[in-house]
Queue: 2 jobs
Job 1
Amino acid sequence: MEILHHRGHMRFLHVGERFMRIVLVLFFLSVSFLFFFPQDVYAYIDPGTGSYFIQLVVATLLGILYFLKVNWKRFKSYLRMVIESKKNGDRE
Amino acid sequence: MAIESKGKVLPSSFRDPDGFIFCHEGFIFRQINHSYKADYDYLMNSGLYSVLTEKGLIIPHKEIDPSSLNNIGFEICVCGQGYKILRPEQVPFVSYPYEWCFSQLQDAALLTLNILKIALDYGMSLKDSSAYNIQFISGRPVFIDTVSFTKYREGRLWGAYRQFCQHFLAPLALMAYSDVRLNQLLKVYIDGIPLDMASKLLPFSTRFNFSLLAHIHAHAKSQRIFSRKELGLKNKRMTRLEFMALIDNLGSAIMNLTWKPTGTEWADYYNETSYTSDAMKEKMGIVSDFIDKIRPKTVWDIGSNIGLFSRIASNKGIFTVSFDIDPSAVEKNYLQVRDKKETKVLPLLLDLVNPSPGIGWENEERMSFMDRGKADLALGLALVHHLAISNNLPFRKIAAFWGRICDHLLIEFVPKDDLQVRRLLTTREDIFPAYTHQSFELEFKKFFEIIDHKNIRESERRLYLMRKLN
């Protein structure tokens, strides 16, 4: 089935990125402790603004992760380079 | 030439000013309004329509030449709104999200996201993400709303995000984490399950799942906080990369939700029926012969369990809707359709004693079960005793029901001394003195002519083939 073929593309974080996921959850938990117990939202209110707001926040966070995911190898080698150059700098 | 059809506009088609659906001489058409001209032309000329139809993801259509419509009898008038009239491939049976099993809703959600991803590559987006945009055709979900596509403007937030969460993510999360029957909330809330309700009903542990925390719990809280405030978000931008990240995360959230059909009413039914294997083979043979006698174009198998008898019809190339009340049975049935790429079976959830009502504006936006046409042949196998004894329905009412939904009926009478009926009567008083072959036939003959009947060996059961009286 077509959608099944596309399921593979939907995979998000790889094993190596689990750390980022944990960081993300902890961050989100810490800033959204108030969000734990939502009160009623009745239908006469248009909830568009709230949905747009959360979309902005979530998309920004996910955008960073997505960028890292797409450029993970480059990011790792960049990190390694920075760490190694720092080590070399310390030795000197 | 500007056109507007005078055919019957479907009651579900009023929200989108860019077009509407109408029915003429039993066929469904779609009018595209001038307001959608730029988007429609872009959809057709950008290559996106071709790609999506080639992949079987959206419904294909033919443009009807307006000048030829009069010649073939359509009543059309010149009006300022109409741009094109399309004749889409016809949907053999219209179904709704509250009639789908877990995997059907999940596949519909993934299809929506998949189409959105492809659309973005061609510079388009989806302006809505309603679950009612999806129908099941030839065993798979297909996107049917041609006017949902809109040109993507870099930086714009996705206007259909809330709808996607309410129509897909919230019901699937509830089905996976709370109770699979909570998809029935979609019957009450036509625009999807309110997120504050989903947030309350989901277990606390789901707050430690980032996607559910963000898209449901925090989303619900955000809706409450900002419900009466204007934030001036119109100028806020979401980059394409952030949009892709959002789609990607919604996709993984949907795919990570799982539900396994186990330990339910009918899941193991065939292992403990009243039939010996020989009797079962004989019953299948009789059903097959009776179907051959009628040669129906459509079969509705009501109370189909996992669709064993539905497949006798579908294997003959007959389009068969396979209804059952049990979410596990429907799930197993659908997984078989998906795994074996079956194109002639449509498994759906249906509680026959409380079938889907007409819902939405004027109770007409979504059709009731009884309004969705008739089958050439209906199967009611091992069902009558549940209706008559478990639900106290008199034969008169049962016969009248079948008379409304089919032209031919293949029905099984299960007598009182059958194991299954005895089970139903173990915990209750037998107040059914009229539950006999004779009164069954008497009442059904008021609506049907009995063409044939056969007893099944090694059991007291009897199969009837009937034709509706004119």
Note: Residues 1-6, 71-78 of chain B have pLDDT under 50 and may be disordered.
Job 2
Amino acid sequence: MGDPASASPPGSRRIDLRSLYAESEIGPLLAELDNDLVGLEPVKRRIREIAAFLLVTRAREQLGFSSGAPTLHMAFTGNPGTGKTTVALRMAGILHRLGFIRKGHLVSVTRDDLVGQYIGHTAPKTKEILKRAMGGVLLLMRPTTCTVPRMRRTMGRRRSRSCCRSWRTSAMI
Amino acid sequence: MRLTQGTFSYLPDLTDAQISKQIEYALGKGWALGVEYTDDPHPRNTYWEMWGLPMFDLHDAAGVMQEVTACRAAHAQKYVRINAFDATHGWETVRLSFIVHRPKDEPGFKLERTEDHGRTIRYTLHAYATDKPPGRRYG
């Protein structure tokens, strides 16, 4: 991190994180998260941590420290019905408010949406989904089902490969 | 001669940022966007070749711009346009269509006059580019 005053970067000025926080309007979003979801204390804490980290990243950018876009891939694990999708939706809202994604919509997909029915079908199908998720968040439901050991050499593997290739460029930013 | 078909065709070529804004507008209206290309500039040539399928359910212009860039790279010497299709009931038609890429050199059209019965003159447009076979027009 580094103190902005002592580091004196180009265009050095003080930054008020509190006002930045108010400006980004994620406060109500986080409060909503606290009120709407019962329990999930560690999750809520983690989300607050991530939000704080992203806020500081924003502030650093404004000061001229270019650290590159943070890696924003996340894994939500848990039993069915424990709020993985709900939390992902809220996360999309937070990312949007902080300006890390342009639109803030959530595209939730499963294996069927990504893996094609015949060889050569998977790559364009995956590309289509990634295109739809641009500017928002792509939520991959049960990613473990995407590679089935029996057919590892064909469908699933291809999906993972083409997905990984464009992941960095398109999925999050 | 500069081809004037579709919206914005009398303006200077749109920059990528401006195209992006137009796509954002179309997406905001809930229209589906499609990219098409052709090397037959005749005004009655309404059905151009489709570059992939029309893109439904998109939220962000980046996805369309990616296709536009890919189509431009593959068909640098052809016309590329974006169509915005409105699927809502009562419209079900293209609401916005504009050219986003054109060949460097556009030779234009010849006006052909044909004498009909009673010295009537019938007029036809003939694009110089179509003298050459498809794929080899525009250099």
Note: Chain A has two domains: 1-100, 103-173.
